[in-house]
Amino acid sequence: MKEIGHWINGKRVAGTSGRFADVFNPATGEVQAKVALASKAELDAAVAAAAAAQPAWGATNPQRRARVMMEFVRLINRDMDKLAEALSSEHGKTFPDAKGDVQRGLEVIEFCIGAPHLLKGEFTDSAGPGIDMYSMRQPVGVAAGITPFNFPAMIPLWKMGPALSAGNAFILKPSERDPSVPLMLAELLQEAGLPDGLLQVVNGDKESVDAILDNETIGAVGFVGSTPIASYIYSRGCANGKRVQCFGGAKNHMIIMPDADMEQAADALVGAGYGAAGERCMAISVALPVGEETADRLIEALVPRIEKLKVGPYTAGNDVDYGPVVTAAAKANILRLVETGVEQGAKLVVDGRNFKLQGYENGFFVGPHLFDHVTKDMDIYKTEIFGPVLSTVRCKTYEEALGMAMDHEYGNGTAIFTRDGDTARDFAHRVNVGMIGINVPIPVPLAYHTFGGWKKSAFGDLNQHGPDAFRFYTRTKTITSRWPSGIKEGSAFNFKAMD
């Protein structure tokens, strides 16, 4: 059985805790590897080594650090298929979707090549007589990222790229469910010229997470995952004096107005609702058609599209629409929530409960589900299902639909499909959600903007990637400078305002 360890001081090392977790092939249900779960002592040793390596890196010219990222981009492109293959085999994504996972992370690394500009401070000449004032952005020292299973390339790249480019050392604790790609990325960064010790990849579970949150050397922690864990990490990390940004769950709504292009809206909903088996924090899981006629037209357009979805392993070809979910437990939870939807009175228009894939009966495949006549008191509406389940809530008016999106506790992403500019503009200005799509179903900002939700989808005051990432991984130091004129003046004992 293959054993997966850690990446410490520029090389792969075996774990020493004696604890392991199974890494499954989601398509077959078979255990394909075991990953070491680090102890607190292992994590603390990795942090100590990172702290020793960081000062020299922090003092390195930002342009030289950017050149490492430039080479990293080239190497990721060179090994794109290899990375996607490893990702698909452990996560279950289709091969094109796995490449997209890597690509969206790569775009943030491309943005990091511009770090020298993003790290510039401000300068005020002659703030007072002979006095200049300026600021500089300096790294926090050692930062850490705790990343989820559903994007094993993208989110680690979103975290490590800005942190390292800003001059920090970085501790990555990826998901133990699909650990291979983060280790491969570490190898590529070393090949790109990153000095040893600056990136430590420590696989683990809650013991490792708590060790990160309690380690006094780590100055900043970023997390992506479920809202309960995000709340826990944010509270414990902040209590320990760390800068913390946490991104949690989502329940993303899409409003379909009567004037919308229904074919376009239906295509968008199917892709956004069922892509990656719904295991995306930006998946659309709630459709809000306005008016009974709009709802009927939408359901009529959705059903044949959903029934034609091809579900299978990534090895079945690039025409597979989505693959298995990540674990047997995830599959069981999705099907449990589907049953509650039926019990609570929603109409199951497309029923995927009995889906079976010949030859892969033990895999973690879940058939597509479509609910109609869902109400906001149902569990399938309130809960993030994280599976291939789309709920339709029929709304009488635009204001009712807008209120549904605004009243939900999550506020990650939302979308509206309409031909009317005034409605779209009103929606964008009023809805209390962090990322908005207008005729765009999955409104994930590009790398030079920032990614982040509102309400219980995010904890902390700065977003991921874009300029916010460099603000998060640096601290501002402000200097007030005055040089003697050559005439020694007497001591001043009063706090004097600037002239």
Mean pLDDT: 96
Total beta strands: 23
Highest CATH level, the class of the largest domain: Alpha Beta
- At the fourth CATH level, what is the homologous superfamily of the largest domain? Aldehyde Dehydrogenase, Chain A, domain 1
Please count the helical segments: 16
Structural class: alpha/beta
Number of domains: 2
Instruction: Please name the CATH topology of the largest domain.
Output: Aldehyde Dehydrogenase, Chain A, domain 1
Give the termini separation: 73 Å
**Which overall shape is indicated by the principal axes computed on the Cα atoms?**
globular
Strand content: 15-25%
CATH architecture term of the largest domain: 3-Layer(aba) Sandwich
- Approximate helicity band: 25-40%
Low-confidence stretches: none
Rg over alpha carbons: 25 Å
Strand order of the largest sheet: 15-16-17-14-13-19-20
Largest sheet: 7 strands, mixed
Describe the protein's architecture and organization.
Helices cover 39% and strands 22% of the residues. The model has no long low-confidence stretch (mean pLDDT 96). The strands form six sheets. The chain has a seven-stranded mixed beta sheet, with helices on both faces. A six-stranded mixed beta sheet has the order 10-9-8-11-12-22, sandwiched between helices. Strand 19, helix 15 and strand 20 form a beta-alpha-beta unit. With 499 residues, it is α/β, with parallel strands linked by helices. It is built from 16 helices and 23 strands. The chain folds into two domains: 2-248 and 457-479, Aldehyde Dehydrogenase, Chain A, domain 1, CATH 3.40.605.10; 252-438, 3-Layer(aba) Sandwich (Aldehyde Dehydrogenase, Chain A, domain 2).
